[in-house]
Amino acid sequence: MKKYNFYAGPSILSEFTIKNTAAAVENFAGMGLSILEISHRSKEFIAVSDEARAMIKELLDVPSGYEVVFLGGGASLQFCMVPYNLLAKKAAYLDTGTWASNAIKEAKLFGEVDVVASSKEANYTYIPKEYTIPEDADYFHFTSNNTIYGTEMRYDPDVKLRMVCDMSSDIFSRPVDVSKYDIIYAGAQKNLAPAGVTLIIVREDALGHVARAIPTMLDYRTHIKKESMFNTPPVLPVYAALQTLKWYKEQGGVKAIEKINLDKAAILYDEIDRNKLFKGTVAVEDRSIMNVCFIMNDEYKELEADFASFAAAAGMVGIKGHRSVGGFRASLYNAMPKSSVEALITCMKEFEKRH
Questions:
Q1: Are residues 191 and 298 in the same domain?
Q2: Which of 153, 151, 143, 239 is nearest to 184 (CA)?
């Protein structure tokens, strides 16, 4: 039976990425060696890393003055690495979910944190709109997409100070005005590669303004200077990332991908709104196009386990909501084909007919 992969991360990858990466595990670059065993300093792998970083700049139209680096530690390491490098006295954070909250917690270790707004009181079911960012803050940080709750900021805010964004779960899903940001970071396991590598886009002149000593591994300048080769990088995920980037380019780039993503999300949200059994969980204007969260309508709550089993039997994998919120979550990352979303919709309609 065909499986439809709706996991929130690690998540679906394109067939192009999987096939090419699998081939490289057998024989990388005609070397007669596996990508798993070659030196990260071999000319063949350095070429992979260089091409991947160049392609990121091309796809996201990264301006001059910025560098792209690959690091380990996931986005969670960036929660402390960002303030280590940027927070001198005070930082401003927007609290829109679990990962934003975790970033705030880490930043408080380095200085004052002004949480300019939070939707925690409403279980993060909306993105705060009316808030003031203090002009004396060293930077403003927000999380663009909230995987657990299904809200998303699909725009680049206009602020008067440095701006940092965790784009782990929606990077490459829409065009981004990189020039508005000083640091963009993203764990790869949603829209880029297997878990194990983190993408960082950093404006070089944003660095070097804090008085504290920064440990070598936690200083962005270390990795910029060594072109992501200061220590052994996660070779396999970087190779897989390059395959995904090549696939994005083949699809027509980020604008073309956004159009497809909007279409996929629209047809699923339309079904959630139409189907008597289901309802959405967040403010309509803040609905994520990456993570579609929904629950059973109140009068059908007792059918939740039945629908989970019904969907699983139809090949739907990974639609269970996060353990902290329950319900269902269909993650529609870039590699998710529209046909898989249509299969889920068919499943929802068939279940409705039975009840």
A1: no
A2: 143
For this structure, is 99 an active site residue? yes
3 state DSSP class of 82: helix
Q: Is 166 considered catalytic here?
A: yes
**pTM flag (> 0.90):** yes
For residue range 179-225, list pLDDT tens digits in order: 999 999 999 999 999 999 999 999 999 999 999 999 999 999 999 99
* 190 included as an active-site residue: yes
* Encoded tokens for 248: 């994005």
Catalytic residue among 138, 170, 182, 190: 190
The first and second tokens of residue 168, run together, are 């782990």
- DSSP-derived 3-state class of residue 346: helix
Closest CA to 291 of 258, 269, 313, 315: 269
- Rounded Cα–Cα distance for residues 183 and 129 (Å): 22
| 95, 99, 182, 286: the active-site residue | 99
Final residue before a domain boundary, out of 250, 274, 306: 250
Beta bridge partners of 198: 71, 187
Which domain-ending residue is among 250, 268, 294? 250
pLDDT tens digits, residue range 294-310? 999 999 999 999 999 99
